[in-house]
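Researcher: Please translate sequence to structure tokens.
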Amino acid sequence: MRRVSCCVRSAPRYRWGFLALFVGSLLVSALQLHWMPAAQRHEVGIGVLAFTVPLQVIACLYGFLCRDVVASTGLGLLAATWAVLGVAIVARGTLGVLRALPRCGLDRFAVLGE
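Model: Translation complete:
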């Protein structure tokens, strides 16, 4: 019974995952919609890698500890996807590299190409 109450109290763990998803989506969308200058692409990549990825990994691990496998798997996949996107932005400095991501199985980012 103690394990169940521990996991019920830790239900807000998904808030951190969704907060990270919101911030990462906002950063990349702002870059794509030209709300930010193109010169700040490197900072966006660092922001995604420094904020979004760790927060989603923490929420994923915490979910696995509370035996919520389905939601934790989703958060883990999102964290990995954001990590690939952040590395692509930092490494190339441009979102044009996202055209190559369908070869990695990340087809949903193909629409983000310039």
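Researcher: Any highlights?
Model: The first helix runs from residue 2 to 9.
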